[in-house]
Amino acid sequence: SFWISHCLSVYVQVVGIVIGAGVVIVLIALLIFFVLRRMQLRKREAQEAPKYRFRKRDKVLFYGRKIMRKVSQSTSSLVGSTSSSRPRLKKKQKMLNIAKKILRFKKEVPILQMKEPPPSVLEADLTEFDVANSHLPSEVLYMLKNVRVLGHFEKPLFLELCKHMVFLQFQQGEYVFRPGQPDSSIYVVQDGKLELCLTGQDGKDGVVKEVYPGDSVHSLLSILDVITGHQRPYKTVSARAAEVSTVLRLPVDAFLSIFEKYPESLVRVVQVWNFKIAQESPFDALSSYALFHHQDPALLNGRVTFHHAKAGSVLARQGDQDVSLHFVLSGCLHVYQKMIDKQEAVCLFVTQSGEMVGQLAVLTGEPLIFTIKAERDCTYLKISKSDFYEIMREQPSVVLSAAHTVAIRMSPFVRQMDFAIDWMAVEAGRALYRQDDQSDCTYIVLNGRLRSVIRKVNGKKELVGEYGRGDLIGVVEALTRQPRATTVHAVRDTELVKLPEGTLNNIKRRYPQVVTRLIHLLGQKILGNLQQPRSALGLPSMASSPDVTNPASNLSTVAVLPVWDEVPISAFNLELSHALSAIGPTLLLTSDIIRERLGASALDSIHEYRLSGWLAQQEDINRIVLYQTDSSMTPWTQRCIRQADCILIVGLGDQEPALGELEQMLENTAVRALKQLVLLHREDGPGPSRTVEWLNMRSWCSGHLHLKCPRRVFSRRSPSKLREVYEKVFEKTADRHSDFSRLARVLTGNSIALVLGGGGARGCSHVGVIKAMEEAGIPIDIVGGTSIGSFIGALYAEERSAVRVKQRAREWSKAMNSVFKTVLDLTYPITSMFSGSAFNTSISKVFEDKQIEDLWLPYFNVTTDITASSMRVHKDGCVWRYVRASASYTPYLPPLCDPKDGHLLVDGCYVNNVPADIARNMGTKTVIAIDVGSQDETDLCNYGDSLSGWWLLWKRINPWAEKVKVPDMAEIQSRLAYVSCVRQLELVKKSAYCEYIRPPIDRFKTMDFGKFDEIYDVGYQHGKLVFTEWARGDIIENMLKDHRSADYKDSKKTDSCTCPSADFTDLAEIVSRIEPVLSYLGADGQLLQKKKKTFYLYNLPYYLYLNLGQN
């Protein structure tokens, strides 16, 4: 009965008190005995003759100083002596070293120096587009700004264009152009303001864009129409002056006169403008070669093949890279596009007999954005991409006709959007907008990278997030019409599309279903702000709140920089490329590969724009591009750093910490990309050590990683032999459990974190679950925990083996089960019942002097800072100390004094017992959270408005009375302490990123460490059951699947990383390669830049679809 159990508990408490009192009495008696004995010995010594002696400590110090003094005198007298005295000098030096070892105190472990990010990371350049302080006229600057977006023009071409500029003055309300007038000019506002209007179905004009000084009104499609000889009038678009304005007008015909004068620029620009659309071209045009504007039938000889497709066959799939032109002879081809987050696809259009499909992907070099399927029997002609490029080489004007076939299929909506949107190019360091600016538009990133920084009330700046290709910027502020919450600046040269507020409203009116997606985006943002506290991103600080987002998410380019020449950087990059190729298409670029593919002088400064365009193309068609720097600060190394979203600094972990020469040069430049330190270790070598010294001698790094490398990485081979080795390696699938696969997941934002909750001895089940995870093939990239979870997590981060973790955890649990050590650790209970000395010893024996920075896996744990009343997240420092702090459960153990700032730290279970949200904010895609905490009773008695203690006592002592569940004072205080923790746990369990696991361990008590094996088996069996279900439900597969894999599905994987001479051909390479014989293709990147803009324009609805939903 309850009364008997209560009596037994009271009896146990009394017996414990008696035993404790007895132990105290015995200790006091022993103390008195030793004091009396010492007094007697002193009396005897006083009676004898006085003897003088040194204490041992004083003797050692005396002789030590004497030896050092002698040695110092000897070495000073030997200065300038002959070579015969060198052996003597060595002996003296050896004696000096021995003396130093004798007298040296224990060396203190270095502490990681907290460093703030440099200004280049958090601050945008103060110099903006300044017209007043420029030596050029404002009209030239404005025209340069707008024409540059169309593509790079050499100085003579641009000056020739400026000669055709016309100044126009407009009064308020006067129209610049109306529907029906020829659409054949580019308008740039010099001062004043214009309003771009669209005529709706009701005949009323709606403002979709306000044009301010320096901005322009033009359509890339209209320019293309004029260039190809198919000029059209304005239909639904008009522009009027909102105030007195001065406008610069540049006729598109000016381009034609320039191309006549500079024919080598014709193909570059016109080819660019032809990539705009989905096309239509009759069969007789192909048969008469009108499509190619060429009378020689030999142009197509051997390049056109005849095919027959049966009903239901798929000719090309969405995401294919190696595409072809398909010209329908009979039957029809259906074009489908997969809906976002759904398996079904929608039919975009049907290609009938005499029509062509696929030319947009061929011209742009981009992956196919739809699937081509024959719903019934069909015959068609096919021209491969490589054959089309050969035709283009022989007859450059083919791009004009191809452009027209694409443009005529462009919908009126896309043409209207072409007027309304703005193409923007933001240089590295320049601000896109600043905090508190007015929100009047949304931006879409085409390529490049931007960083969002918030300025706090105290003036401190903190990193909020980063944006990569396809991301929406500023959509929440634009929808809510609130001032900009942060400052966004370009990490590197970036291209964007600016979507004005009026244009976005027009889209919402025409396609109401977009509103649903916008509400969803806004709701996610608001919910995220409620659930996740904002704080610095990637900052290795001791802030109480965790990181907000992943600084390495959505990376496109990574530069790899070796610390020394001894670092096997080529093998490292090939190994990393192999791991990345399992996630998505990967390209490794070196200076040798660039020269081989683009020409010997490709890295010369005069070919800057050509190289930039080609590199941008590679970023578009690959999931990630690796840039291997040279061993010195060459132009290619500077290019790598300039192109990088993230820089990996690679060193050898078994060598002395040092700062390389290339790094020192890098420190003197304003590098905006985040830096990560990567230390390589041999398979049979010692574990990581002295990582703090590596980090302290460098400026701010966003993180560090330790990699255990296979032997082939350190083997010295010639480049040809190295390629042979890795050609065989690339034939096999990368091991998902290797450290290089872990690095690949970190770079692509696909990391998997394991978070272990607190719960005393019930946490022994963590080890069993980890064992089941290993058997299920689930990799672990980051480990974190609270209380016992911090202990098991630190063990796994150090060992990375469930077997070794089980052995060490069992030994520690056995030591924790010792009653004798527990009794000896009792103290007078003012702050705690135990002094904590025994607990400290048990944990320090397990981890010794290991530092968190020296663990194989990134690790963190959580404590409660009662000095500052906040949560603390520890990612650096002494392992055993912070594990002890995270497990300091009150009132049993005293708080631990943080050696960094003296704050008192206790168990983290009071603020966050299962810190899955912290792991998520460190950049992980999926968090596996294991909860072993006790569960409180929720079925409590409703006793009314008042409670009598006597009534409750009677209910408890009366064996025949009905039992009631009413918490006592201790339980109430405990529940109050866990209120915030319980709320946080409920949020985590409902989150989409977290996989929550709770083993059936409720029958075990907090101090049941003696039942380690039994608790371990419970966790192991439950883990096997859970992970088997995950495997059946494709949960594990989805964990390992890249979140951007759909963008590159079925795309061709380049093997250039192992074979630089591989047969890889694309339009960008043809245009970018230096061929003196083919001068019209020796462009400086203009063709490629324009081609990309056309592709993005054509796919603007697709980009909006990706972000806002299917229209």
TrEMBL record:
One of its GO terms (biological process) is phosphatidylcholine metabolic process. Residues 149-259, 304-392, 420-525 form the Cyclic nucleotide-binding domain. The chain crosses the membrane at residues 12-36. GO terms for cellular component: endoplasmic reticulum membrane. Residues 754-920 form the PNPLA domain. It is a single-pass type III membrane protein. A motif (GXGXXG) lies at residues 758-763. Keywords: Endoplasmic reticulum, Hydrolase, Lipid degradation, Lipid metabolism, Membrane, Phosphoprotein, Repeat, Transmembrane, Transmembrane helix. Coiled coil: none annotated. Its EC number is 3.1.1.5. The keyword Flavoprotein does not apply. The keyword Thylakoid does not apply. It catalyses: 1-hexadecanoyl-sn-glycero-3-phosphocholine + H2O = sn-glycerol 3-phosphocholine + hexadecanoate + H(+); 1-hexadecanoyl-sn-glycero-3-phosphate + H2O = sn-glycerol 3-phosphate + hexadecanoate + H(+); a 1-acyl-sn-glycero-3-phosphocholine + H2O = sn-glycerol 3-phosphocholine + a fatty acid + H(+); 1-(9Z-octadecenoyl)-sn-glycero-3-phosphocholine + H2O = sn-glycerol 3-phosphocholine + (9Z)-octadecenoate + H(+). Its main location: endoplasmic reticulum. It is found in: Endoplasmic reticulum membrane. Belongs to the NTE family. This is lysophospholipase. The lineage of its organism: Eukaryota, Metazoa, Chordata, Craniata, Vertebrata.
